[in-house]
Amino acid sequence: MANDSNPEEEPVFRDKRRIDPETGELRDPGASASAEAPASEDAPEGEETLSDADEALLAETRASMTEEVEAAQAEAAQHKDALARLQAEHVNYRNRIERERAGDRDATVAGVVERLLPALDDLDLARKHGDLEDGPLALVAQKIEGAFEALDVHRVGEVGERFDIAKHEAIAQLSNAEATEETVADVVQIGYRVGDRLLRAAKVAVQVPAE
C-alpha cells in the first residue's frame, strides 16, 4: 500500500525587520514583499511610512555613524600633526648635525693652517720679491693655493679695500688729503680665514683722510 504522507518539511524563517541590523539602513519594503509572494494587482501604490520606533532606530544609527566618522577624522588629523612635528624635528636635527660637522671640519683645518703660517709667510715674502713668478717654487705655491681653496681657506687683506676692524689690524696710519675713507694702503702681513672663521687678521697700513 502506497504511503501518501509527505516528507516533513523544514521550517522557513523570514526576516521581516525594516531596519537592517548590520548596516543600519532602511530595507526596501518592496524587495521583501516580492520575495514572499507574487505582487498583487490590488496592492496599494506609494511609499510605506516608518513607525515611530523605526524612525528613532534609524536616527540613532545615523547619529552613531556620524560620531564614528567625526572621531576617525579627528584621529587622522592628530596623526597628521604628529607626523608634521616629527618631520620638522628631523630637519632641525639634520641641520644641527651638518652645522656641527662643518664646525668640526673648520676647526681641524684651522689647526693645520695655524701650523703652516710661518711657511705661508715665507711664501708671501717670496711673492713680494718676485720669486713666485716662475720656477719650481711657483708651482709649489700654486698647488698650496689650490688645496687651500678646496678646503675653503682664503687670504685676508688686499691693498685698496676698505679698512675693516673685524679682519684688519692697523699697525700704521698714513694721512692723505685725497682720501675720503679709511682704506688699506699696504699689507704688511697677510691674514687667513677658514670659511667664516677668522684665523689671523691681516696686519695693514691704513690710509686715512687728512684732517
Tags for this model:
Nucleotide Exchange Factor Grpe, Chain A, domain 2; 6 strands; 211 residues; three-stranded mixed beta sheet; rod-shaped; 2 domains; alpha+beta; 3 helices
Alpha-beta content class: alpha+beta
Strand fraction: 15-25%
What can be said about the biggest beta sheet?
3 strands, antiparallel
Helix-strand string: HHHEEEEEE
Instruction: Show unreliable segments.
Output: 34-44
Quickly count the helices: 3
Large-scale geometry:
rod-shaped
Number of domains: 2
Percentage of residues assigned to helices: 40-55%
Mean pLDDT over all positions: 81
Record field, number of beta strands? 6
Radius of gyration: 46 Å
Structure in words:
The chain has 211 residues and is an alpha+beta fold. It has two domains: 16-35 and 49-151, no CATH class; 152-211, Head domain of nucleotide exchange factor GrpE (Nucleotide Exchange Factor Grpe, Chain A, domain 2, Roll). Helices cover 47% and strands 17% of the residues. It is built from three helices and six strands. The strands form two sheets. A three-stranded antiparallel beta sheet has the order 1-4-5.
Please provide a brief summary of the model:
By secondary structure, the chain is α+β, with helices and mostly antiparallel strands.
Which SSEs are present, and which pair or pack?
Blueprint: H1 29-36, H2 52-128, H3 136-150, E1 153-156, E2 168-176, E3 183-189, E4 191-194, E5 197-200, E6 202-209
Parallel strand pairs: 2-6
Antiparallel strand pairs: 1-4, 3-6, 4-5
